[in-house]
Amino acid sequence: YAGPIVRRPMGLPITAGCYSAWIRTRDCSDALAIEGRDFMNTPPLKTVRFGGNVVATLAKFKQGDTSDYELLKHQLADPDIKDAQIINWLQEFRNCVTQLSKDHEQLIYLVLRLPWLGRSPAVVEEYLAFLSNLVSAQTVYLRACLKMVVSNFTPKRVKICEGGVDISDSDDDDENLPINFDQCHQALQLIARYVPSTSRFLMPILTENFPFVQKSSRTLECYVHNLLRVAVYIPSLQRHVLELIISRMLKLDVSASRGEIEEVENAVQQQEMKGEQEEEGLFDMDVCSVKSSPAGTNVMVHPVAERLDTLMVVLLAFIKDMCHVNGCLDVEQTKDLYKDLVCVFDKLILPTHASCHVQYALFYLCSFRLALAEAFLEHLWRLLQSPSHPAVLRQSAAGYMGSFLARANFLPVATVCACLDLLVPWLHLYIDSQDSGSRAYCDIMLHGPFYNACQAVFYTLIFRHRSILEGDMKKGLAYLQGLNLERIVMCQLNPLKVCLPAVTNMFAAITRKYQLVFCYTIIERNSRHVLPVVRSSVGGDCVSTNTNPLDSFFPFDPYCSDADEDDFLRGETPETKGVMGMTPGSYESHLHSPSSVGSPPIAFLQRPF
């Protein structure tokens, strides 16, 4: 296969259709039965055919005689059809493929439904040859061929009924899945080779066949894995495939908040600890082990979290393998992937409120090289300062920028300071433009981007002030004093009244410690008033409400955090070393953490199914 991540060859080699060679090499029951069969003393096998050949049958059908035609359709639909029959039929259809017009649509659909996957190499070879001939001679069947292939991107559905309730889902125990998927992709590559417009017809089919997000983790994992494989050998679809996958992942992400997931996981841990205590004695104080999930597995108990983690592992493994060839970063491929992910970020992730996990795909990619991280920060900065963008997107960009600066421990201090040197002067200019005007009062609806940018600066300093000060305290203090944070805090727009209390209190403690700003007088004054946020729909004074649009989330807070691992969540001054950014090294350790899916990152196409 084309592309750097396709490393697994397809099964046995396929040679030119030599049926006798197939009989000698095929290791299955019907081949052995043919070899050792006593023809005179055994009944005929199912390879016996009725009616004429396909060419003659089509000719009779054209003349109005449909008896042999219907018989042919019946034999093609036989669930017990043998390899020899399939090969024979396909060879005949190939010889008359130019006659298979739209009039024979039902017949072609039966041929496309032949059980060719997982069969002998000879059957697979003949079927692929038939597909190639069919799409070349009769492009009217292109969509049908593509639908047939894509329908095999997930395990077959197994019907299960318990207590009168249908709980059918995918067959997770099918050992032939890797081979079947390889053969599907071989078929798609052949079709794409013979029909250049394949990508235009394929993407809608991939979208239509995407499993419902409440399907099993296994079904979603297989489908997403196969979508990403398509993006490897049809690069023009990479952005569309990523957009499709991320849009579905976002539905999962926003359907369960981080708090809800942690509550479920903690409840299970407490139940397991209680059960262990009851087993070993209620007063046995030596019991201290806590399992992450039932049976001690690394599987999330929350069903949505488990599906999302499974898909995140597949997506991050794809990103890693697309960007690295033989362990070295491929700059050009990484740049192309970055551009596609940023486009998807702008279109889907940035406007989505309260997504907690999916954005880490871009965070992980940026950790590969500093230039990528700086390009992402510059992109966010342009969004924030551009008045042509909606205020809600500018506010979201500020949130992402602050969270990235605070949490990405692969960013050097110089980059952090460079971004602060952009954000802080912009805040001062904004204050200059408002202080003398009629709108110089606290109102989130009027000054939303300003308040989010303030919170981004405060949040960044909470996590990065130690890095700025260490090494040369005098120089670091001079830099922080030069930011003139006091003017921002004391301005009439009153950002401390709008920022989240956790951020405000932590920022106040740090700035007092280093005598940069004294915030507590303002905080106490603000606490006596209700926060005005929304303007009256008919104009006039602000309407007081307790709803704060900034009370949302920090997009790059730890993906899988423990309260003991994040100082900020505990209300303590965070240590720089405690910041849980995700780097290439920490990604591997993340995958082994209690709240992550159980499989470690491995070569994308070598992931076992």
UniProtKB/TrEMBL annotation:
One of its GO terms (biological process) is transcription initiation at RNA polymerase I promoter. It comes from the Eukaryota. Keywords: Coiled coil. GO terms for cellular component: nucleus. Residues 254-281 form a coiled coil. GO terms for molecular function: RNA polymerase I core binding; RNA polymerase I general transcription initiation factor activity. Pfam families: RRN3 (PF05327). The keyword Protein biosynthesis does not apply. Belongs to the RRN3 family. This is RRN3 homolog, RNA polymerase I transcription factor. It comes from Salmo trutta.
